[in-house]
Specification:
Elements lengths: L1 H6 L1 H4 L1 H12 L3 H25 L5 H21 L3 H27 L4 H26 L5 H15 L15 H5 L4 H25 L2 H7 L4 H25 L6 H20 L3 H29 L8 H20 L6 H25 L1 H5 L2
Helix pairs in contact: 3-4, 3-7, 3-8, 4-6, 4-15, 5-6, 5-8, 6-15, 7-12, 7-14, 10-14, 10-15, 10-16, 11-12, 12-14, 13-14, 13-16, 15-16
Length: 371
Amino acid sequence: MLTAVCLMAYYSSMPVILGRAAASRHLEANELGLLAGLFAGGVAITAFLALFFVRKSSWKTLIRCGAIGAGVAFITPVYIDSLTILLIAHLVAGLFCGLGYSVAIAFLGDTKNPTRNYAFCFVLQTLTGINISYFLPRLTSTENGFDIALILLSALAFFSIFFSFIFPHNNTKPASNTASKAPHCATLYILLALFVIFLVYAGDGSVWAFTEIIALSNGLTAETAGAIVGGSLLAGAIGSFMAGVIGTRFGYLKPMSISIGLSILSVVMLHYFHDLLSFTLAIFINGWAWNFGSGYRMGLVAALDTSGRFTPLIAGMQLLGSSCGSIIAGLLVTEASFLWVFIFASVLWTISLLLFYWILKRQFKTLFIGQ
């Protein structure tokens, strides 16, 4: 879990870090979308490739290579002030972060209760994001905030090397399970469950990447925005913790429906209400709903994929969704209006819920009605 936390600290606190990038490097919305998209896309590329090697290679080696590569990539733009280098560094950092993150996701998917463990992993990730989002705007200036954030991300990446010693050498699934081939029909449902994760993350990523920018457009200060984002991460941690405690006793559909319904409510509030209280409440609801439902979406894939062959793709779909969502959102922002971003996210969330319902109804009655 801690490996995933260190390597994905950027994603956990992305709105505040991108806000620092906009202030210190004078970047536009489409450029910020590219930064977020390239990092997430890099993680997604590695996660997809991990399908072919993560269960055959040394997990310890993969984590160490990922940590070193990500650490170097994050620190490079601090010393070379170039937008091109910054963009390349984000892509390279994403590629290397994806190595360790794919191992962590595969390992958690092999555990006895993956839904609960995924949820508690999100708790740790969001608590890390809370600390970065709260302290970064307060301990740094507008001019050096982004550079300090990159140095911190580099240090966390290097620190994750120490966690490689506690991992098993590689695959923890029995050989008979990983070698087995799932029927084509079962494989289809696994891929559809992965697509649900993609849709949700594309919707959430489109809003999440621009949270601080939305706050600033509402007249809030960077410090206030950072505090709200930090608070939303706390709400997300509570959501993940609640999902971990509840588990599957109420099935998968009810928690997923609550998650999606509240997510849509949050963007409706963001569009129609611009005062501090309403904005704070909307962001808190969004953070809680996103994390509350994440464990169930990932757990559905693990439940369908009994061989563990496809679980590394969870990370790929999460980050590919975020990548596509943030890039498209950057194109949809018009004259400080985020209406089309909110519509885009709501449509994707609705489709994901309908597809999630269809998979459960066809495959799992116990997960549909609860245990």
